[in-house]
Known about the structure:
The complex is a heterodimer of chains A (147) and B (153).
Chain A: H1 9-13, H2 17-22, E1 26-30, H3 34-46, E2 50-54, H4 57-65, E3 72-75, H5 84-93, E4 99-104, H6 109-117, E5 122-125, H7 130-146
Parallel strand pairs in A: 1-2, 1-3, 3-4, 4-5
Chain B: H1 3-20, H2 26-34, H3 42-66, H4 73-90, H5 93-107, H6 111-144
Helix pairs in contact in B: 1-6, 3-4, 3-6, 4-5, 5-6
Keywords (chain B): Cytokinin signaling pathway, Phosphoprotein, Two-component regulatory system
Domain HPt (chain B): 39-142
Protein name (chain B): Histidine-containing phosphotransfer protein
Amino acid sequence: MMLGNCATSSSLSTTSDEDIVNNNLTALVVDDSPMIRKLHDMHLKKFGLKVQVAENGKNAIDLFRCGASFNLILMDKEMPIMDGAEATRELRTMGVTSMIVGVTSLDSIFDRQAFMEAGLDHCFTKPLTTENINFLLQELNKNNEEN
Amino acid sequence: MNIVNQLQRQFIDFSTSLHREGFVDDQFTQLQKLQDENSPDFVVEVVSLFFEDCEKLINNMARALEQTQGVDFKQVDASVHQLKGSSSSIGAMRVKNACIAFRSFCEAQNREGCLRCLQQVTHEYSLLKNKLQTLFTLEQQILAAGGSIPVVD
């Protein structure tokens, strides 16, 4: 099924086919900023995903160690205790195959490349936009169809 | 024109001016579109968290710049960088732009320049706080008068 650009303001507030498809998708938002966690949580929920949040890389890893799994992880880079790159490397070492997407304020190509090399599938610069989320959901639904 | 229409007109004019004067950009509009009847206070809550972030980060920057033994510009830059990320995420365009300028002074390790930028960031944050408070007050007045908040694209 092809997803069109579905995130108009009307489709964000009514149930659509896209919501039903996305309802099977789960996401984890990892960011040390409570504001960003709240924002991304709501943004993903509007697209019909079930969302959990974690405030740093270590908490994210602990969730996986306790048996949680998510289709999508939005990973900030700069976080205390364990940053996004370290957490991503650790998750990949643990065998986690979720889509991990960096969402960072880092604007140097060098820094973003280093973050990608930790094992990200994609990396976006903040702010995360509706277009970014649309793109990710298309990728996720494509992956699900292939499996 | 009845009171609801008057207030709605005021709201639209004020919203438009916020965009026109660069206080907020399209990211703020996207934020407003996320609010619905299940989360009627979403925008106010996110904006409050943003202002808490601002205050904390501005204090960090001020403390780091006060160090007489030598300023840790990396530390200042880290806070500016974080504030840039938060401000861009909610569409606080003038705060974000002030952060961009700030970062180049951090890179140049220019303490005077940094102090001027800190003043600018603090100023923009105060202005925005007042503007958004006015916006939210208008929203409350419209709702109290039985009207609905217009969508301003």
